[in-house]
């Protein structure tokens, strides 16, 4: 009954929103197609996971959609992309498909309102030191899908439908080479090497209201982040890395409803609720039921999208989530005693919360050819609980385009990140060492640095060699820093 009630309540919310949007859309301007944007990603961490090819920006990765005036723009084509500021740095967007216009098929489909996607996203990594092996590891993802402009296709049905299937493969260097790091060095790895229905949703937008309902990831619309970098520290919805059981990141999808309102030109408010089940996260290829539900996560986000000096676009947002999913206390048993000393079953925590704050601001507007643009991004997520291994994540990133004369579309990026272990976990390690000196390492924060250069050697292909430097791996200040060479390929077929 609880799962049925959740499903019914979600449908009621959706019906009310649709009715409101239908009235709101009567005077809306004709829908326009948003051009494809940004590079994609796949976020992961076997347990952190979140890498998504399709998300929407500040109104979001959907992690695939770009923020846009709700009255005049529809959901963008299903492109593995992150919230991107139109015409700004760090986009590295292929100018075309590797196989051109598919012998004339692509423009014919687009004329009918169908924008297909056939894409491969892969990442290689090799550790220069440390670990139990020095083998090069590769992980990747195939993505097949389409975005359908129903109004254009049918002439009468409003809204947009998106479907996306993904298939991952490969190995994670941190696990296979025994690096012992907190953040995945290949954000495309995670949640099983299987086929998944990653997106299957319907969206309708009016002048001030926008509704999305179906199978999706909350990271498409909440705490959405770009994946310009290869390390998971800088990719996707950070809050999902802290609480993967209550915020199930890409490529995992779940039933959900998201309503977004735009009370003014530069402000949006989004609210969403999602049904959680372990069947979504575990390697079950296609499981769409409400059975085995572990609870519901509800979240809200407020965003501000100004243009500094009327020219430089920016996105500023804060959000929070509340979840009914239970979690096991890291330290205490059911009697409130420390399990390390007294043993016993873990104490069950019932209510979960999380918070995030993100910003991305264009600092220098690129020239007409796209060169010499500079943008800065800062992100933070916090989960104040006794049940999460990671307590917080933070990062600052800079992206600059057209570093080399004559190559305006290339971009250079550098990112600095920190992943903080739960302070209660650190405290337990300190207490263990009091009882037996040196028995366990006392761990706190891991620091990640990444430098990449992105270029497009041929139309439809993005290549990004990168170098990652991990300080205090796994949060252990006594361990040596690790250097990793990486390579990201994004290809639109």
From TrEMBL:
Stated name of the protein: Uncharacterized protein
Keyword Lipoprotein: no
Chain residue ranges for the region called Disordered: 39-85
UniProt cross-references to Pfam families, sorted A to Z: OprB
InterPro entries assigned to the protein according to its UniProt record, in alphabetical order: Carb-sel_porin_OprB, OprB_Porin, OprB_sf
Keywords from the UniProt entry: Signal
A GO cellular component annotation in the UniProt record: membrane
Organism classification: Bacteria, Pseudomonadati, Pseudomonadota, Alphaproteobacteria, Sphingomonadales
Comp. bias regions, Polar residues: 53-71
Signal peptide: 1-25
Transmembrane segments: none
Organism: Sphingomonas aracearum
GO MF annotation terms: porin activity
Domain of life: Bacteria
Entry similarity comment: Belongs to the OprB family.
Gene Ontology terms describing biological process: carbohydrate transport
């Amino acid at each position: 009954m609880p799962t049925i009630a959740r499903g019914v309540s979600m449908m009621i919310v959706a019906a009310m929103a649709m009715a409101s949007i239908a009235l709101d859309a009567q005077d809306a301007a004709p829908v326009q197609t948003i051009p494809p944007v940004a590079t994609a990603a796949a976020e992961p961490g076997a347990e952190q996971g979140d890498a998504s090819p399709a998300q929407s920006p500040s109104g979001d990765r959907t992690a695939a959609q770009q923020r846009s005036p709700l009255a005049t723009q529809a959901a963008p084509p299903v492109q593995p992309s992150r919230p991107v500021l139109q015409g700004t740095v760090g986009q590295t967007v292929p100018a075309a498909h590797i196989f051109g216009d598919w012998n004339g098929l692509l423009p014919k489909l687009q004329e009918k309102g169908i924008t297909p996607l056939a894409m491969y996203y892969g990442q290689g990594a090799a550790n220069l030191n440390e670990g139990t092996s020095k083998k090069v590891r590769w992980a990747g993802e195939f993505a097949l899908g389409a975005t359908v402009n129903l109004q254009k296709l049918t002439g009468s049905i409003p809204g947009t439908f998106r479907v996306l299937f993904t298939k991952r493969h490969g190995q994670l260097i941190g696990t296979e080479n025994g690096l012992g790091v907190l953040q995945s060095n290949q954000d495309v790895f995670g949640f099983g090497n299987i086929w998944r229905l990653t997106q299957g949703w319907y969206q309708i937008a009016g002048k001030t209201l926008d509704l999305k309902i179906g199978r999706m990831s909350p990271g498409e619309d909440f705490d959405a982040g770009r994946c310009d970098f290869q390390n998971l520290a800088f990719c996707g919805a950070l809050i999902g890395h802290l609480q993967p059981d209550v915020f199930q990141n890409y490529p995992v999808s779940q039933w959900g409803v998201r309503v977004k309102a735009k009370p003014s030109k530069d402000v949006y408010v989004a609210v969403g609720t999602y049904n959680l089940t372990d069947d979504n996260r575990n390697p079950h290829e296609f499981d769409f039921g409400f059975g085995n539900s572990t609870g519901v996560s509800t979240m809200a986000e407020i965003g501000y999208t100004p243009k500094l000096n009327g020219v430089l676009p920016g996105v500023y947002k804060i959000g929070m989530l509340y979840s009914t999913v239970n979690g096991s206390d890291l330290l205490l048993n059911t009697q409130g005693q420390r399990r390390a000393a007294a043993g016993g079953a873990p104490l069950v925590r019932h209510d979960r919360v999380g918070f995030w704050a993100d910003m991305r601001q264009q600092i220098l507007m690129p020239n007409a050819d796209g060169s010499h643009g500079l943008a800065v991004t800062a992100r933070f997520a916090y989960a104040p609980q006794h049940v999460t291994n990671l307590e917080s994540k933070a990062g600052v990133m800079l992206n600059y385009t057209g570093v080399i004369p004559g190559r305006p579309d290339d971009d250079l990026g550098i990112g600095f990140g920190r992943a903080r272990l739960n302070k209660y976990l650190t405290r337990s390690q300190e207490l263990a060492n009091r009882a037996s000196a040196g028995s366990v390492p006392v761990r706190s924060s891991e620091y990640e640095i990444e430098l990449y250069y992105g270029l497009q050697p041929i139309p439809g292909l993005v290549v990004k060699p990168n170098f990652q430097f991990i300080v205090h791996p796994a949060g252990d200040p006594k361990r040596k820093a690790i250097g990793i060479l990486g390579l990201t390929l994004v290809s639109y077929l």
